[in-house]
Amino acid sequence: MGFLDLFIVALMPILKTLIVTAIGLFLAMERVNLLGPVTRHHLNNLVFYVFTPALVASNLADTITSSNVVSLWFMPVNILLTFIIGSALGWILVKITRIPKHLHGLVISCCSAGNLGNLLLIMIPAVCIASNSPFGDSSTCITNGDAYASLSMAIVAVYIWTYVYNIIRASGSKRNDSITPGETSESLTDVTEPLVSKDSQRPEDYEAQAESPPTASEDKVPVLKKIQQHMKDFAEKINLKMLFAPSTIATLVGLLVGVITPVRKLVICDSAPLRVLESSATLVGYIALPLCGILVVKGANYFGLVGSDALYQFVLLLQYALPSAMAIGTITQLFEVGESECSVIMLWNYVVASLFVTLWTAYYMWLVS
């Protein structure tokens, strides 16, 4: 199949995405104002707490089984590599452009976390139903493609709410630590005063304490207690509570329902007594990185780590070429840091992606076919 035919196949899902984006842009215009600031805020909450978890859980439970989950073991590794390589490229970009420190996390996150869930759920079925698709029978392609896209969406949800959430949180805290030019010495005193106890030691006391030998009680501090304290400090810094965000909980639920056969028969099968639960949830519900993806996936294929399924290899490759995850915008709103900058990044990110994702999609299909 020629490259032009593959380009046309790759163009169809991108056009669908652009149409949906254009509708959203029209609704958000001031003249229409159906998606004003308040509406967008509540809509983000609905997406975070309802739509995304329902979409993740229903798709995982319906497509992932105990037999195919083992054969897809390389996908979590592949997505982790996209985050690692993307973070490295983002760090280089931060150093070159010298952007403000409180935006470092935003830039690195946009380079590392791609939209590996929602876009794949749109693109893969659209590619499968195309008349000149290189992946064979459309029904089989859609079934397998939904499984790959659902697992991808579930894994990236966990990575985003553990890694991206905490890196933006840590980066945004640097803005609070900086001093604005309008602050006076009195305000500085008010800020720093609670940090220093009235009974705090003077410099002379610290020098005397440094010279004195450690007491017996200090020597008897258990090593295990020190380790526990370090682990507690680490947990407080990265906020492990966000590991249990709604989307990650939905990931666990979907995997359990899909993998555990007795539960799957209760919920997923056509004659399942609880079939209504799954159907209801369904209703609710840059250039360097893609090149690195070719090296990773082709290397894994050479060593026999990903099997011979062309569609599976295509999904793994596509995970390196997608634009930034929209959840990053939700995270910036949670911390009220870099919201306007994130909007600008996302705008140009998706404008450029409309062309380059099409080209990369066509090239990846030619590469695996």
UniProtKB/TrEMBL annotation:
Protein name, as recorded: Uncharacterized protein
Organism annotation: Vaccinium darrowii
